[in-house]
Amino acid sequence: MQNALVKQSLVDLLPPLMVALVVAFWAYGPEALLSSPWTLIATSSAITAIVLGLEFVFERHAGWRMNKQEFFTDLFYVVLSATVIAWLTQTLAEDPLKALKTSLGISTQWVMHMPWLAQVALVIVILEFGQYWMHRLMHNVTPFWLTHAPHHHITQLNAAKGAVGNPIELFLISLSVLALFDFDNTALFAGLNVLGVVSTFAHANVRANPPIWYSFVFTTIRNHSLHHSTDYEATRCNYGNSLILLDRIFGTYREGESAIVGQDERRRLSIVEQALFPFQPLIQRYKARKSDASDAAAGTIEEVSPA
């Protein structure tokens, strides 16, 4: 019994330990690795792979167990986010912001003079603050909800599920103003990796329940599984992708957990259905008009037909 408690306590420490390892790597890692543009991609991929492996060892819910269909769907979205979505974000948002910053002569050199850990914390707060309000907007304004709803049609939670959703939503949720700030690159990448660790565990099928000093600030699977529950009204809470502290501050935090996730009677959407989901009202309106036109044409033919 005591051994089981010790083992569970160690499992509960996995998220904070991985956060600490990520920060230590970017603070003290080899210069050759830290200066490579490919290192962030490698560390982000490694985080997902490691947590995915932990799901097989420390499974939280059998109903969320990974299968071949889920794996390849998740892989599709991970690749999509790392390529197409990343390129769109860079081209349509970050590069224009940098150009605007230069043209207006905006200087944020003061950021570079902050202690390194303070820069990491600032990266986390800036990115999460924007994502919190974008996420909250998506749950409270219909056009934005239509882009976000496919993410809530997932019927199980796994390590890569944070990347699953409609491409429009994936682009919108990736937007930030980080490009306006002059961060040390290692601090920027450390902040991004910390957010990656937290959000990956927050979607993962791992039975880790981190200690209160962690879960008070960072989002956990308990908070986020409730956000993914089957009742739409119950999903309108715990918006913080990685910083549940923002929900506590802005009054949207709710205690609880849900082992059953998914919307619309837990109907799983295909990749094509997820892509088309925001346009369903337009598609249905078009089909209704087409049907009305067909009925009208049929009625006209009946009227002119000889008795």
Automatic annotation (TrEMBL):
Q: Does the keyword Transmembrane apply?
A: yes
A Gene Ontology molecular function term for this protein is:
iron ion binding
Which terms does the UniProt entry file under GO BP?
Answer: lipid biosynthetic process
| Residue ranges of domain Fatty acid hydroxylase in the record | 121-252
The source's domain of life comes to Bacteria
Q: Which UniProt keywords apply?
A: Membrane, Transmembrane, Transmembrane helix
**A Pfam family of this chain:** FA_hydroxylase
Query: In which compartments does the protein localize?
Result: Membrane
Parts of the chain that traverse the membrane: 9-28, 40-59, 71-90, 110-129
List cellular component terms (GO).
membrane
Query: Matching InterPro entries, A to Z?
Result: Fatty_acid_hydroxylase (IPR006694), Sterol_Desaturase_Related (IPR050307)
Q: Which PANTHER family match?
A: STEROL DESATURASE
Q: What is this protein called?
A: Sterol desaturase/sphingolipid hydroxylase (Fatty acid hydroxylase superfamily)
